[in-house]
Design goal:
The chain is of the alpha+beta class and about 475 residues long. It has 20 helices and 6 strands.
């Protein structure tokens, strides 16, 4: 079985299985905290309305046959508990079918969530988590050697992820080609982090170096994964370092952390021993394991053949002039196409939602609702939320870009504010009315930019903003009914 076993990647397997499981914990916690107000029985985009018009075959989900908020809570808690057992390594202590079963449960449950999640789950990292969880299921347990075919599929996933992101940039926006993209990106990214302003204020020549380093990491380095051993380990280490830079500079949910976990699959045990030995850590000898059972070999080879067949679509996409970004070619979200920021927004527009309890909106005092992640208060330091995903805040960013699909949920969202709906208000950082319903709400547009060092010292503000007009004029319940 030498052609099947990858004995030199035992630590890589452990890191991938536990890391992918840890990201699932975060994802299911987000389901428990956010799914019901966004997509539940009284959600902004109710699941039942989707399943009434979309057939099961096009969007397979446990919720297709029957939906209830209680079932969502059950799915969320089962997902959290099963994922935690994998994080601590309990299923990995048994036969190879046990972690396979555990990851299969996570995959089915999260697929059920994503396939009814509509715009709130329309992100590339949802498909990435599903594909990663599917592959992790077949890495086996500690009682068998890591299977080389599954590791090769993980390397192919990392190559698609990085190369797809690099190619979409070069094809999509001149700012990436002329090295000016980061003049804007740190300021205009969907959800800045606590250090984003400092990154934005770096000298422009350094921004150009950042872009060059990004191109090298995404367009050249991934091919090092094709040479297992020290070359692939070095390539993976470069990608991990780049992803950590992105973690520091912004909030991209679990995209960066999951990429780090997946890149670990290419680092062999010898490289880990060398790197950890530099800091005095000795991994000790690897315990011998037996040959994999025949059924396990057959299953892994069948999965590898399936993924190889499905790879024809993303491979064509990588070679296409009209490359699609974050595309799934099947309803199971297996072997997808990836990419990020094919275009760079040059200025930041924010939708600021306001309410008032005054009778006359024309002379009213308006108060602002504060979101958890997106900028509103110009003095507030952005927080680090990643790998957690604030879905409402991301939707607000797309809404500010003029995405018409976001209006489908935004009008109901204004209605929930008029009702002072508790679950909806808990998605926000601050309700200016302390749970009381406002009489009117409205949505204004502002242009935001980071304050310079001089402006920060003079005003204490981290942002400078200028009014750009109204998105939704003063609205009460009667007018909202007409909008709907």
């Amino acid at each position: 079985m030498e052609w099947f076993d990858a004995d030199g990647y035992t630590l890589a397997r452990a890191l991938v299985q536990r890391g992918v499981a840890a990201v699932h914990v975060v994802a299911f916690v987000a389901v428990l905290r956010q799914f019901r107000p966004l997509l539940g029985e009284r959600g902004l985009l109710p699941v039942r309305a989707l399943t009434a018009r979309v057939p099961f075959r096009a969007s397979p989900s446990l919720f297709h046959r029957w939906y209830s908020d209680r079932l969502v809570v059950l799915v969320g808690w089962v997902g959290v508990v099963v994922a935690l057992t994998l994080v601590v390594g309990l299923p990995q202590q048994g036969p190879p079918w046990l972690p396979l079963l555990a990851f299969a449960v996570l995959w089915v449950l999260y697929l059920s969530v994503v396939n009814v999640g509509q715009v709130f789950y329309g992100f590339g990292w949802e498909s990435l988590l599903l594909e990663a969880g599917f592959l992790a299921a077949f890495l086996g347990s500690d009682n068998v050697p890591p299977p080389l075919p599954v590791l090769v599929l993980l390397w192919w996933l990392v190559l698609r992820l990085e190369l797809g992101a690099g190619l979409i940039k070069m094809r999509g926006d001149r700012a990436w080609r002329d090295l000016t993209a980061l003049y804007y990106h740190h300021e205009t990214q969907p959800m800045p982090g606590p250090l984003s302003r400092l990154f934005h204020l770096l000298p422009r020549p350094l921004h150009r170096v950042e872009v060059l380093a990004n191109h090298a990491t995404q367009l050249v380095v991934p091919f090092g994964l094709l040479v297992p051993g020290p070359v692939a380990s070095t390539a993976a280490a470069i990608m991990i370092a780049t992803q950590l830079w992105l973690v520091l500079s912004g909030n991209f949910a679990w995209l960066n952390w999951l990429t780090i976990v997946l890149a670990c699959s290419a680092i062999d045990d010898a490289s880990w021993r060398w790197a950890l030995g530099l800091v005095g850590v000795d991994l000790g000898p690897v315990a011998p394991v037996g040959d994999p059972p025949a059924w396990y070999v057959v299953v892994v080879l069948a999965v590898a053949a399936l993924c190889l067949w499905l790879s024809r679509h993303p491979l064509r996409n990588l070679l296409s002039r009209h490359q699609a970004m974050n595309a799934s070619f099947n309803a199971l979200h297996l072997v997808n196409a990836y990419g990020a920021f094919g275009s760079v927004t040059r200025q930041r527009t924010e939708v600021v939602v306001e309410g008032t309890r005054d009778a006359d909106p024309g002379s009213a005092t308006w108060l602002e609702y504060e979101f958890r992640g997106k900028p509103t208060d110009v003095r507030r330091l952005p927080r680090q939320y990643a790998p957690y995903h604030l879905r409402l805040d991301w939707g607000m960013w797309f809404l500010a870009l003029g995405s018409s699909s976001q209006l489908r949920w935004f009008v109901p969202f204004l209605g929930r504010l008029l009702d002072a709906d508790g679950p909806t208000l808990r998605l926000l950082a601050h309700d200016p009315f302390d749970g009381a319903p406002p009489r009117w709400v409205r949505a204004r547009l502002y242009r935001y930019r980071f304050a310079t060092r001089e402006q920060r010292r003079a005003t204490g503000q981290r942002w400078v903003r200028e009014a750009e007009g109204l998105l939704v004029d003063a609205t009460d319940r009667a007018r909202l009914a007409r909008l709907q």
